[in-house]
TrEMBL record:
A GO CC term assigned to this protein in UniProt: mitochondrion
GO biological process: mitochondrial RNA processing; RNA splicing
Family membership noted in the UniProt record: Belongs to the PPR family. P subfamily.
Molecular-function annotations in GO: mRNA binding
Protein name: Pentacotripeptide-repeat region of PRORP domain-containing protein
Pfam name, any one: PPR_1
UniProt keyword Repeat, yes or no: yes
Keywords, comma-separated and alphabetical: Repeat
Database matches in PANTHER family: ATPASE EXPRESSION PROTEIN 3, OS08G0290000 PROTEIN
PROSITE patterns recorded: PPR (PS51375)
PPR repeats: 60-94, 95-130, 131-165, 166-200
Source species, domain of life: Eukaryota
């Protein structure tokens, strides 16, 4: 019997012994299910939420937010969005945690229209201030879809609000600019990131190196920022591949010129 089954067993014992569970009981159960991030667990959580209603216990913002996060983790974003609507009907005001879970869920499935125009707009409508996580999630989502115009817009809005971008935002921006061939801007952001004491993640390092390598016209060494953290096997492989392709092109040109002569 795993932890989830043990929790359910205790809950059933409470019901059979007529020890009325309260909102804290349900919250603990839901948190336990969600922490395991299994689809079956989330289904059980939905059933628990129905039992909460039967017992006429009103879920609070924490309970709703945990449940919505769990649904989004397993890809059931629409169900999470439905719960947000139910929250509004029940007069339970969602907070930034609630909205951020849904924004992240929609970004992961590539539905940026829902993430931005629906959830983020509703967030503003209800007076919930977007935070660093909100902006970073949207920036990352739009970078993955290649919409750099939207990325720049959210980044600018973030700075205007006095919010400092985190590792997720910087890494997404650097990746986005590298993929679009704007190495100069990627380098500026990479330098700015390091000056703020933020360490880029592995994907950011690789994309940054890839961008520098692909834009270079001559053989180069591994791009090494002040930390000297970019010399990984994958990056060196990228550089080796670049050298090989350049040499291959040179040899082909030489062979063609000789044949023509």
């Amino acid at each position: 019997m795993d932890r989830v089954e043990q929790a359910l067993e205790i809950y059933r014992m409470m019901i059979s012994d007529r020890l009325g569970p309260n909102i804290v009981t349900f919250r603990i159960l839901i948190m336990d299910f969600v922490s395991y991030c299994r689809v079956s667990n989330v289904s059980e959580v939905v059933e628990l939420s129905s039992e909460i209603e039967k017992l006429e216990i009103l879920p609070d913002v924490i309970t709703y937010s945990i449940l919505i996060k769990g649904l989004c983790i397993v890809g059931k974003v629409e169900e999470g969005s439905f719960l947000l609507q139910k929250m509004n009907k029940d007069g339970v005001l969602a907070n930034s945690v609630t909205y951020n879970s849904l924004i992240n869920g929609y970004c992961k499935v590539g539905n940026m229209e829902k993430a931005n125009l629906d959830i983020c707009s509703q967030m503003n409508e209800y007076g919930v201030e977007p935070n660093v996580i909100t902006f970073s999630t949207l920036i990352d989502g739009y970078c993955k879809t290649g919409n750099m115009e939207a990325v720049v817009g959210f980044y600018s809005e973030m700075v205007i609000k006095g919010l400092v971008p985190d590792v997720v935002a910087y890494s997404a921006l650097i990746n986005g600019y590298c993929k679009n061939g704007n190495i100069k801007e990627a380098f500026r952001l990479h330098k700015e990131m390091l000056e703020l004491g933020l360490m880029p993640n592995k994907n950011c390092h690789v994309e940054y190196a890839r961008g520098v390598v692909e834009q270079s016209t001559t053989k180069i060494e591994a791009p090494t920022p002040p930390t000297g953290h970019l010399k990984t096997i994958k990056i060196n492989n990228l550089i080796a591949l670049k050298w090989f392709k350049d040499d291959e092109k040179s040899n082909e040109k030489l062979l063609n010129s000789r044949n023509q002569g």
